[in-house]
């Protein structure tokens, strides 16, 4: 299991500073940052990334390509999978690393003291801590992933980033962002800035119209997938094309057709920032070296694969909304086409997510679903609720008390062809799986 350090005590304390876990606003974080000396004004040049699906993968592609070009890159992402430290990667020549415990604890102590007990959400105060760390440690570029929405997200305190990226928008977090694609896209488009290039991945028409309206209001120039650039697979190769020409590239290391669009958004962003010096070779190297745990990640070794019969495959993906489910199902279908195996799913979900919409994508594809609890969140659905959602989607399902029990049952039920098992439904569950497997992100 993951270790506990002094920083965890601060995280627990920070939870008590505001009655709500999520309360979208910029006022509290701006006040704290001002009291800290406005570190957001002293950051390395930043690329901000918002969206519903693919923002983490797009950020991972950007980091890999920038580092392949010899750049030192700070990265801020959320949520973490196993330990909070994963959210803050400090750049260094030759590659960065997660913030260490001593540096994180000292920074938490400072922001806690300066905040002086005033109301602020956990995400806001920890974002302030991250910005303080990024400002005090030199790097060439900062990749800043939005936590939730965009307009009132605590990361949206950067006055003039290098570029604003919006990955595919879909229905998620409707309670906070609105109940239509247009409303949600409007909130995501809140990261756009006057005269700052915006790179827009492929969108549904309603979402794109909303983004374009906001860009026109702000005077933000857009580079739009399907109009200004294209990313596609052709004959087992990855083809990127824009006004500057065509790139014939190897397929990305990250598995799934949806990763073509995510990689395309990263390339479009960097092609629009030629002064960063990320050439074709760095792009190609980045496609092959990119790493983003918990997204169609193959667990080939560790405690969990050992529970399955020899020849089985164990995969992990933290997807949790209907569009994410469709992307994962498409990837499973591709894998099955190349190497047929019985598909088994181990699913845990939060009660804030559309379980029915997520699981419907796997009807006719998965042979069995094992519903498991999520122990790392109070919002986890019970295994029984997951089972009923799976059954409503037409999937055979049964409940289990843990991931290990589900894998043991899958092993016992396996026929002559070993199964392809997918653990999915939540990033919280993905983190629990990596922790139990003994392979936390590094």
Feature tags:
single chain, 442 residues, alpha/beta, UDP-N-acetylmuramoyl-L-alanine:D-glutamate ligase, Protein-Tyrosine Phosphatase, Chain A, 2 domains, 8-stranded mixed β-sheet, 6-stranded mixed β-sheet, 15 helices, 38% helix, metal-binding, magnesium, EC 6.3.2.12
Q: What is the CATH T-level topology of the largest domain?
A: UDP-N-acetylmuramoyl-L-alanine:D-glutamate ligase
Task: State the end-to-end distance.
Answer: 15 Å
| Average predicted confidence as pLDDT | 94
How many E-type strands?
17
| Total of DSSP H or I helical runs spanning 4+ residues | 15
Cα Rg: 21 Å
Helix content: 25-40%
* Number of spatially distinct domains: 2
Identify low-pLDDT runs. none
User: Can you tell me the CATH superfamily of the largest domain?
Assistant: Mur-like, catalytic domain
InterPro entries: Folylpolyglutamate_synth, Folylpolyglutamate_synth_CS, Mur-like_cat_sf, Mur_ligase_C, Mur_ligase_C_dom_sf, Mur_ligase_cen
Domain Mur ligase C-terminal: 311-426
Cofactor: Mg(2+)
GO cellular component, one term: cytoplasm
Structure description:
The chain has 442 residues and is α/β, with parallel strands linked by helices. It has two domains: 6-289, UDP-N-acetylmuramoyl-L-alanine:D-glutamate ligase, CATH 3.40.1190; 297-437, Mur ligase, C-terminal domain (Protein-Tyrosine Phosphatase, Chain A), CATH 3.90.190. Helices cover 38% and strands 16% of the residues. The protein has 15 helices and 17 strands. The chain has helices spanning 6-15, 27-35, 55-68, 101-115, 122-136, 174-177, 181-188, 205-218, 258-271, 280-289, 322-338, 355-360, 383-392, 403-413, 427-437; strands at 46-50, 73-76, 88-90, 97-98, 141-145, 163-166, 198-200, 222-224, 229-234, 237-242, 245-249, 297-298, 313-317, 343-347, 368-371, 397-399, 420-424. The protein has an eight-stranded mixed beta sheet, sandwiched between helices. A six-stranded mixed beta sheet has the order 12-13-17-14-15-16, sandwiched between helices. A three-stranded antiparallel beta sheet has the order 9-10-11, covered by helices on one side. Helix 2 runs parallel beside helix 5, helix 3 packs across helix 10 (280-289) and helix 7 runs parallel beside helix 8 (205-218).
């Amino acid at each position: 299991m993951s270790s506990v350090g002094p920083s965890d005590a601060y995280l627990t304390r920070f939870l008590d500073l505001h009655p709500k876990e999520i309360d979208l606003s910029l006022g509290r974080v701006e006040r704290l940052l001002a009291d800290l000396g406005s570190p957001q004004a002293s950051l390395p040049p930043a690329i901000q990334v918002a969206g519903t699906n693919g923002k983490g993968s797009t950020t991972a592609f950007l980091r890999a390509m920038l580092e392949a070009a010899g750049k030192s890159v700070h990265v801020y992402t959320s949520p973490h999978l196993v330990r909070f430290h994963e959210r803050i990667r400090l750049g260094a020549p030759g590659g960065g690393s997660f913030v260490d415990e001593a540096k994180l604890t000292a920074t938490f102590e400072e922001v806690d003291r300066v905040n002086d007990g005033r109301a602020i959400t956990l995400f806001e105060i920890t974002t302030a801590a991250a910005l303080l760390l990024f400002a005090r440690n030199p790097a060439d570029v900062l990749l800043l992933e939005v936590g939730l929405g965009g307009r009132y997200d605590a990361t949206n305190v950067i006055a003039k980033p290098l570029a604003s990226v919006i990955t595919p928008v879909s229905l998620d977090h409707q309670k906070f962002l609105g109940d239509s694609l247009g409303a949600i896209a409007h909130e995501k488009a809140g990261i756009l800035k006057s005269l700052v290039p915006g790179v827009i991945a492929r969108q549904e028409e309603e979402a794109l119209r909303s983004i374009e309206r906001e860009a026109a209001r702000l005077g933000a120039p857009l580079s739009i997938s399907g109009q200004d650039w294209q990313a596609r697979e052709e004959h087992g190769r990855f083809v990127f094309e824009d006004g500057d020409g065509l790139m014939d590239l190897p397929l990305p290391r990250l598995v799934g057709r949806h990763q073509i669009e995510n990689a395309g958004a990263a390339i479009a962003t960097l092609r629009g920032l030629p002064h960063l010096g990320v050439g074709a070779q760095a792009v190609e190297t980045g496609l092959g070296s990119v790493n983003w745990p918990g997204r169609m990640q193959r667990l080939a070794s560790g405690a969990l694969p050992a529970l399955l019969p020899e020849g089985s495959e164990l995969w992990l993906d933290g997807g949790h909304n209907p569009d994410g489910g469709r992307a994962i199902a498409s990837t499973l279908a591709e894998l099955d086409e190349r190497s047929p195996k019985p598909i088994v799913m181990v699913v845990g979900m939060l009660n804030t997510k559309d379980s029915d919409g997520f699981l419907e994508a796997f009807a006719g594809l998965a042979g069995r679903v094992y519903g498991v609890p999520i122990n790392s969140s109070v919002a986890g659905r019970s295994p029984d609720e997951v089972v009923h959602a799976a059954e409503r989607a037409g999937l055979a399902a049964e409940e289990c008390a843990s991931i290990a029990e589900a894998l043991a049952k899958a092993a016992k039920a396996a026929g002559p062809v070993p199964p392809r098992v997918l653990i999915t439904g939540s990033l919280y569950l993905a983190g629990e799986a990596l922790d139990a497997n003994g392979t936390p992100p590094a």
